[in-house]
Amino acid sequence: MVYQQLPFDDLKVKSTNKERVAYFYDSDVSNYSYGASHPMKPARIRMAHSLVMNYGLYKKMEIYRAKPATKQEMCQFHSDEYIDFLSRVTPDNLEMFQKESVKFNVGDDCPVFDGLYEYCSISGGGSMEGAARLNRGKCDVAINYAGGLHHAKKSEASGFCYLNDIVLGIIELLRYHPRVLYIDIDVHHGDGVEEAFYTTDRVMTCSFHKYGEFFPGTGELRDTGVGKGKYYSVNVPLRDGIDDTTYKSVFEPVIGKIMEWYQPSAVVLQCGGDSLSGDRLGCFNLSMRGHANCVNYVKSFGIPMLVVGGGGYTMRNVARTWAFETGLLNNVILDQELPYNDYYEYYGPDYELDVRPSNMFNVNTPEYLDKILTGIFSNLENTKHAPSVQINNVPRDLEDHGDVEEDTADAKDTRGGSQYARDQLIEKDNEY
């Protein structure tokens, strides 16, 4: 089977109106390191941010540094003893926590490094504050590339993930939204998020991932949820080498059907970059545009949307793709020639904004994909009428995410002016 790439012209910005985009970035996140030989590099978030800034996208959106998540907020999902362990363990005192390290699965894949707890709190704070702004109608799209750590469990680190910022963000969204849809395009199954909401119909999880002798080994077609959550977990198990056209032929029908039948009022999209061609740990063959097509398609529904990062282990490709997708979310298709940026030498020899597919063989036959789609649509039939959710009282916001519509004179902070005033400082299309 010959690989197929989405042509450049095929990717049109799908927009109903001008979306207000809130972008969360904390420069400290790139100062943390899992270790020199570890494939997870937080520096890729700074690489993506450098491209976003040098392409001038900061003029189009509101940029925030989120307040780091507190212990109390983290414990809305994670167990108290697990979060307490993360806050106390360091490389220097690791010997004192040998029993806990085994219990909480901290070791090789999920090493203890300097500033581990602070790293987790930055990731969690961005996703929670993004969700809180969506809840208050302050933006239409919230972006947190430091988030997307979908493998973390209630009391266990897993797959380079310690804190499940996605679950915390969804919990925040559920304060205002009766139904939330979670979509995962990382090459790995979004097992931590699926497990957290496996028994409820208020969150539908949909994961497109490599299945079969591949981490984490979960996410087969028959895993659909239990109890009230039966049929509200959707898994799309894929094989090696899937290309743009094939991925699109599965992604759009499945998401289109879910939108039609489940009718979510908020969406969380995990944009793991390890499904891109040439990833160090991945085995898919998506180009930058094939990956971005998923973001573009979900955005076209006009539903409040939280966009988070995830995996991605070929740093230059992750940075390129997240920058391109940030452009799409702001209704801009970025120029193919890269602007000069802090990491310019990483993008040689072509210095272009593109991730091209290879000639990798696509093992996903039309017959296999038809079988998968038939099974998924059959399961979705059971969700045809969106569940009615009776909300008697809306839980109050967390104190850290209080509303910002105070009198501007009272809302001063150290970053200059009130939060409300800064919200208005966004470049209009005709400013220059």
Note the main attributes of this structure:
Arginase, Chain A, 432 residues, alpha/beta, 8-stranded parallel beta sheet, single chain
- Beta-strand content bin: 5-15%
Number of helices: 12
- Total domain count: 1
Please state the second-level CATH architecture: 3-Layer(aba) Sandwich
Order of helices and strands: EHEHHHHEHEHEEHEHEHHH
Please state the CA-atom Rg, rounded to the nearest Å.
21 Å
Q: Major sheet: size, sense and barrel closure?
A: 8 strands, parallel
Please, what is the average pLDDT?
90
What is the CATH topology? Answer: Arginase, Chain A
Question: What can be said about this structure in brief?
Answer:
It is found in: Nucleus. The chain is α/β, with parallel strands linked by helices and 432 residues long.
